[in-house]
Amino acid sequence: MDFELRQAREKLEREQRERMQRAKAKAERERRAKAEAARRREALEASHRERRLDAARAQEEADQKMEEVMQLGKGVSFSHMFEALRYDGPGDKIKLPPSSFKELSDEGALDKGPMYFRLSKVRDTVPGTSMEQDAEATCCGVLEFTAREGSAELPLHVWNNLFRSDTPEVPLIEVKYISLPKGTYAKLKPEGAGFSDLPNHRAVLETALRNHATLSENDTVVVNYGQLEYKLKVLELKPASSVSVLETDVEVDIEGSDSVLDNEEDQHVLVPLVIGNIESSVVEEGKFRYYKFSVEENVSEKVASGRANIEVKIDTDASGGDTDIYVSRHPLVFPTQHRHEWSSHEMGSKVLILKPRDATLVTGVYSIGVYGFKGTSKYQLSVAIKDVNSQRIGEYASASGSVDVDSVLCKNCKRHIASRSAPLHEAYCMRHNVACPHDGCGVVLRKEEAADHVHCNKCGRACQQREMEKHMKVFHEPLQCPCGVVLEKEDMVQHQSSTCPLRLIVCRFCGDTVHAGGEPADVRDRLRNMSEHESICGSRTAPCDSCGRSVMLKEMDIHLIAVHQKS
């Protein structure tokens, strides 16, 4: 009996312990579930809170960006991403799609005057992530709204300033409408040497900037002068880092270039040459080395009166190379094979005497181009003012005058010889000398030198036999002008100085150095010897100083004579 009671009690105690353990386990599970639910609820609330903060920040950034766009555009909001395409054209005016014109018109941008835009590159920072704006940017104007949808066409100036380092496979840009102040000051610096050598280089820069609507700091401006190209970097602008250059007067400061003259054969640079000093250098075949020297007024008087000559001398090292000399007077800065005033093509060392066509135009700056005709040539170049020896000329004149009293003409050399020595002279002359039989030549030569004296079959010019190959190449090899005309050297010189549409002239109306163009369409302008550019430029009107009437510039002189009787 006691045994059964004990078993029943133990069983009851065991069941009570098991129930207590199950209750504790259930309570623990419930506690853990509540903790997990609370953790998940807190994480969810934190995620929602972060999303709300991100949305608030994004909205704030969008509002701030919109505010900046509105401030930059003075109430006009226009900011789009386009694919950049390149087109050949001058200046900094881009082409946008027609939809941009409608949007800008709706925003009222057309009523605010010229439109300006800020262009910046965009690129992927990490594949699959959002786009990020790059630091490279520039400003521009707009030319027309004819680009295809989704793209913007950039001229060469804008393209090179925006994609300085590399061009991505798909160049994407952000185009943003902005308002720019009118520029008052600009400081530029040539990237290479030689720009300051151009005559009136500020006017050349002004002509190039007429195709621009804006300027931005750190941009590079390309200036073309004939076939030459110069690059100038914009260092400083006022009153802002990007300014408008339309209808405003900008004070321009041009700093000197940092380029040294160690590589002047690779660029058009005028090395100063002092009269009387010797300059030694080397020129490679097919390349030029340029120099400049000045003739002062006191020297020009002697040259104009014939008491002195300007003598350019080049001594070439006899090492197989050969050079040619081309000389011009400014404003022709860089003489070439077919644009020059004086030249010498003799083989070896040579002396070139400059005789200005107009005695009143001796004073000024002259340019010398040493051209490597064959091989690499070492040379020594010098310019000197040589006095004409008047005493020797007088002695020769008096001597010749005394001979003319009693003289006979030698039948061989055609010289006047004293009659008492004529038989002896003729015997010696017939035995050793021979006259060139070529029509119009008649040069008397030693018989051993006669075989080396030849005439060109095309032009009849006399030269030595060893110089004939060079003569044919220099004077009779066809040359192609940049305008497309093919002529020989002398005809090419005449063509490029008088009829070539790409020749540079100083316009009589705007004063700029420009391409002349072809013949004007108006026959009256042709009779007045105007170029095509002058005919178009002279068609602009200006008020007459006397009556205030608007008159075309090219008709102003006729107006003053016909209406106001002014000579």
From TrEMBL:
Question: In what residue span(s) does the Ubiquitin fusion degradation protein UFD1 N-terminal subdomain domain sit?
Answer: 90-181, 182-255
Boundaries of each TRAFD1/XAF1 zinc finger domain copy? 530-559
Kindly list the GO molecular function terms attached to this UniProt entry. polyubiquitin modification-dependent protein binding
Q: Answer whether the UniProt record assigns the keyword S-adenosyl-L-methionine to this protein.
A: no
Keywords on this record? Answer: Ubl conjugation pathway
Set out the biological process GO terms recorded for this chain's protein.
Answer: ERAD pathway; ubiquitin-dependent protein catabolic process
| Location of the region described as Disordered in the Swiss-Prot/TrEMBL record | 1-62
Annotated GO CC locations = VCP-NPL4-UFD1 AAA ATPase complex
What InterPro entries has UniProt attached to this entry? TRAFD1-XIAF1_Znf, Ufd1-like, Ufd1-like_Nn, UFD1_N1, UFD1_N2, Znf_RING/FYVE/PHD
Q: Which Pfam families match?
A: TRAFD1-XIAF1_ZnF, UFD1_N1, UFD1_N2, Znf_XAF1_N
Q: Which family does it belong to?
A: Belongs to the UFD1 family.
Protein name per its UniProtKB record: C2H2-type domain-containing protein
Q: Which organism is it from?
A: Sorghum bicolor (Sorghum)
